Amino acid sequence: MTIPRTRPFGQKYAFVVAGVVFLALLAAAGVRAAPGVLIVPLEHAFGWSRDTISMSAAAGIFLYGMVGPFAAALMQAVGIRRTLIGALALMAASIAASAWMTRPWHLLASWGVLSGLGSGCVAIVLGATVVNRWFVAHRGLMMGLLTASTATGTLAFLPALAAIAEHGGWRPVVWTVAGGCALLIPLAWWLLPEHPADVGLRPYGATGEDAAEPPRRHLLAIALGTLAMAARQRTFWFLFATFFICGFTTNGLVGTHFIAMCGDHGIPEVRAAGVLAMMGAFDLVGTTMSGWLTDRYDPRKLLFVYYGLRGLSLIWLPYSDFSLTSLSLFGAFYGLDWIATVPPTLRLAAEAFGDRDAPVVFGWVAAGHQVGAASAAFLAGALRTQGGSYLEPFVIAGATGLIASALALMIRRPAMPAPVLMPS
């Protein structure tokens, strides 16, 4: 069935599209966050060690990032709508199948490999592709909003999932997450056109002369060819390195291990998840504001501030007293900075590589983010198993944040054209 050629709200229908994508990103991020709630229940239910459970979380996070550039190319080859619906179906099916798992490899296959492949298609690159396709005005702000949804989904659902796990065990968590993904499939099918021109519109803020970029059809050529082109520029490697550290210091470490770390200090899961939810609320503000700032200020200086403050907060946390006041202070401060790095990073990628290639380039940069996150998820679990404490991984992560702060200032921006002076 074809999508009708008209839509309500005129040019503002772009915001409806952004809303659908916001919900999809929210669900995918929730999928990646749920293993943080399941660590302790699965330990009790099956006797699996924390590093074994962390391995499946790390695999899912790794694929969540590595699929990104191919997902961006797939969206160009077969369309955003088909890619999104297929990814939601894969996540729903693989997570539902985990309700019958009895072996560690079942956990790795369902929550690691299959859900990682699905969620990788519903990641930051989806937001970048939609923003570049549907918006000319307010791109930084819209990317901030869509980026915020990934952290909000990572954190906002955790109190509810932790309460479900506490009262009903791990299986109700599985059914809740799978059901949430399945419910979004008809919404995406109904409300998500491929291009503004498909419904008689132009990108929001575009003039009559703006033309849509024609789709390119060769999946591997798009993904690998764009990587080969980008890899020849230093800017790509600086963006990749800083975003690796971004993942290492956020969802891989805090998103996966914060609840378990609080448990080591006698704090119940639901209360710890509440702190994460508070982080999500502050991140929604912080990342949206970061998008607004990115439209107005040098993105390199913004990244310098974001990574530096994040590194200091991570070093401070394990030395705090883990009181409600300390955790609330950390949650508010760290939450504002959770992934505020995305809008400046995307802007730097767009400036260096252009609107057509930027989503795929950003997909590879985002892959670095998830490689860093997967490394932190596994490393923190292994160090906790060996040493009985999360002190070392948090201090290491904080130090890398300070390194990223310095690297951000080394990124070169293209020279802006000089203004043309009219003769008097």
Characterise the protein shown here.
This protein is an all-alpha fold and 424 residues long. It has one domain: Growth Hormone, Chain: A (Up-down Bundle), CATH 1.20.1250. Helix content is 76%, strand content 0%. The chain has 16 helices and no strands. Helix 1 packs across helix 11. The longest helix has 46 residues, at 342-387. It is globular.
Number of helices: 16
In CATH, the architecture is Up-down Bundle
- The count of β-strands is 0
Q: Mind telling me the CATH superfamily name? A: MFS general substrate transporter like domains
What's the Cα radius of gyration? 21 Å
Structural class: mainly alpha
**Amino-to-carboxy terminus distance:** 60 Å
Please outline what is shown here.
The chain contains 16 helices and no strands.
What distinguishing features does this structure have?
424 residues; mainly alpha; 76% helix; globular
Map the helices and strands.
Blueprint lengths: L12 H34 L3 H29 L1 H18 L6 H17 L3 H11 L4 H18 L1 H11 L1 H22 L27 H12 L3 H15 L2 H14 L4 H26 L4 H18 L7 H13 L5 H46 L3 H18 L16
